[in-house]
Amino acid sequence: MKAIFHADKNWGIGKDNKLMFSLPKDMKFFRETTTGKVVVMGLNTLRSFPGGKPLKNRVNIVLCPEDVEGALTVHNLGELFAEVGKYPPDDVFVVGGASVYRALLPYCTEALVTKVEEDGGADVFVPDLDADADFVLVRAGEPEEDNGHIIRFCIYQNTRVKEIDI
Fold first, then answer.
1. Beta bridge partners of 18
2. Residue 50 has pLDDT above 70, yes or no
3. In the chain, which ranges are continuous DSSP H helix?
4. Strands 59-63 vs 110-116: parallel, antiparallel or unpaired
5. Domains in the chain, please, with CATH?
6. Could you give the CA distance from residue 77 to residue 61 in angstroms, rounded to a whole number?
7. What mean pLDDT do residues 45-59 have?
8. Residues with Cβ < 8 Å from 76, sequence gap 6 or more?
9. Does pTM surpass 0.85?
10. What pLDDT is attached to residue 98?
11. How many helices and strands, by DSSP H and E, does the chain display?
12. Is 61 helix (H, G, I), strand (E, B) or coil?
């Protein structure tokens, strides 16, 4: 399982249940990376998608207490782990939100992070992987411009992946 997200310089990932930046290159990367794969999210992340609908051409798994139309709903981590265990681990991507990242990052082999080199005024954050002893930055792309913002595509590797126990 892998995590994928963009974060500002303070590891903020969103504001008012929306992305803080419009980043076409990052969206293209997200689309190309997750299409045909499995995406795992919480209910607020699903609601933040266009029309509040699951993403097309992906298996959408929503971790939440209520059933969601058009997506596979799991109600706890045990159910989630049983479901994602049906897929190759490299085909499963955690896509948000903050509480889902906090719960699942320890189980992710990698985090694909598009770092935005500014403060986006976030109201939700993920753990600072630069300060997490379990994560190592293994690739930091060159800075590039994306819709007026400087971004860098990075890969963090989890050196102590927790085993999924079903």
1. 15
2. yes
3. 24-34, 43-48, 77-84, 98-104
4. unpaired
5. 2-10+22-158 (3.40.430.10)
6. 12
7. 95
8. 63
9. yes
10. 96
11. 4, 11
12. strand
Query: What element of type H or E holds 149?
Result: strand 149-158
> Three-state DSSP class for 96?
strand
Residues 161, 109 contacting (CB under 8 angstroms): yes
DSSP state of 54: P
pLDDT of residue 136: 98
Q: What is the mean pLDDT of the chain?
A: 96
Q: Which segments within 48-148 are labelled E, that is strand?
A: 59-63, 72-74, 92-96, 110-116, 124-125, 135-140, 144-146
Return the minimum-mean-pLDDT range out of 67-71, 109-113, 118-122, 157-161: 67-71
Q: What's the pLDDT score for residue 104?
A: 98
- Which of 96, 89, 28, 90 lies closest to 60 in space, CA to CA? 96
